[in-house]
Design goal:
alpha/beta, 4-stranded mixed β-sheet, UDP-n-acetylglucosamine1-carboxyvinyl-transferase, Chain, 24 strands
């Protein structure tokens, strides 16, 4: 693969920013919003609630939640998207009530929302679980100290938004530090929120009575950046990736350099090159700033083509090795022991019909197909469309032989 490519806006930053528009009746204008299935689902959900949604151009959104007619996120709207739970905090904080379906999403393991509900209850909300729904009510949320016993990105985001309109001070301890959380916090500050500790594990919020509108640009998608860089590594390519923020994905670059890649960083651009088979790498997924679980499957493809034995430990989700059986159908040599995968590199993979089980698994199988001999057909690519904007067009422009076909 050779050439230049621009990275899209981050899905995991766009979704909470869209939900944050529920905190004000004024216009929230978002730029660099990706065209993705999950974004469309979130916008349809907000429109159903009464939010005015306009698209001035292909990657911008104008959102105005001035007069809502519903405070419910129904099951049929959100069963495929876990991020729907992000409307709970804003609805409860601004309107004092919410009825939100328990979320769906990828089948990568248990991701309970207990910490979301614990935090809202500590802020004074009355919460009941009825027939698959979270029903919440309060007069006005009150600030409190909330300690997360495990890192939770959506939990941090939900309570951060709720705290902005709560009475008094809220302290979030062991808060998630992901760039997408910081991006949401920057939007909330632009809307008039008082937030300290952005980017740290201790976030302090002084509640205000109301928030105003704002204009905000969504950060680039660090997982798309990582996926493209790994694609360069497995195809022995030379690609310039523009529109990226290199510091958001430093630990991946360190591991890819260990594997033999040359990675040069410029201002919002990354040049990645590879001219040989990868060297072995050992990886353990961790919350940010550790190695992202969302990059585990893609790097496993690189390791499968390596010159030796690699090990990948998945510590974030217990069911995120579902792509391994599909990679083995293509000739990969992988042994799983609990949460560890041991990969013995092979010189080449072979094309085969494979099936995607979740978003990142679908990206993994596409990458494997790029490096495999023969034709690889990846089915159930609707998972891919939830998180990658026009990925086949981007790869094709770099020289990949890839096309979307109807089943």
């Amino acid at each position: 693969m050779q050439g230049e490519v621009w990275v899209s806006g981050a899905k995991n930053a766009a979704l909470p920013s869209i939900a944050a528009s529920l905190l004000t009746g004024e216009e929230v204008f978002l730029e660099n919003v990706p065209h993705l299935g999950d974004v469309r689902t979130m916008l349809t959900l907000l429109e159903r609630m009464g939010t005015e949604v306009e698209r001035p151009d292909s990657h911008s959104l104008s959102l105005r939640a001035q007069r809502l007619t519903s405070w419910e996120a129904p099951y049929e709207m959100v069963k495929t998207m876990r991020a729907s739970i992000l409307v709970l905090g804003p609805l409860l904080a601004r309107f004092g009530k919410a009825r939100v379906s328990l979320p769906g999403g990828c089948s990568i393991g248990s991701r309970p929302i207990d910490l979301h509900l614990m935090g809202l209850e500590r802020m004074g909300a009355q919460i009941e679980l009825k027939e698959g729904y979270v029903e919440a009510a309060c007069r006005r949320l009150k600030g409190n100290t909330i300690l997360f016993d495990i890192s939770t990105v959506t939990g941090t985001e939900n309570l951060l938004m709720a705290a902005c309109l709560a009475e008094g001070r809220t302290i979030l301890e062991n808060a998630a530090r992901e760039p997408e959380v910081s991006d949401l916090a920057q939007l909330l500050v632009s809307m008039g929120a008082c937030i300290e500790g952005i980017g740290s594990s201790r976030i302090v919020v002084e509640g205000v009575k109301e928030l105003k509108g704002a204009r905000h640009r969504i950060i680039p998608d660090r997982i798309e950046v990582g996926t493209l860089v790994v694609a360069v590594g497995i195809t022995k390519g030379d690609v310039l990736i523009r529109g990226a923020i290199p510091e958001h994905i430093q630990i991946l670059f360190e591991k890819l350099r260990e594997a033999g890649m040359t990675i040069q960083m410029e201002d919002q651009a990354i040049r990645a090159r590879m001219d040989r088979r990868p060297s072995p790498v050992n990886i353990r997924t961790l919350p940010y700033p550790g190695f992202a679980t969302d990059m585990q499957a893609q790097v496993m493809v690189l390791a499968s083509l390596g010159r030796g034995r690699s090990m990948i430990a998945e510590t974030v989700f217990e069911n995120r090795f579902m792509h391994i059986n599909e990679l083995m159908r293509m000739g990969a040599k992988i042994r799983v022991a609990g949460s560890n995968a041991f990969i013995q590199g092979v010189p080449r993979l072979s094309g085969a019909p494979v099936m995607a089980t979740d978003l990142r698994a679908s990206a993994c199988l596409v990458l494997a197909g790029l490096a495999a001999d023969g034709v690889t057909t990846v089915s159930r690519v609707y998972h891919l469309d939830r998180g990658y904007e026009g990925i086949e067009q981007k790869l094709s422009a770099l020289g990949a032989k890839i096309e979307r076909v109807s089943e």
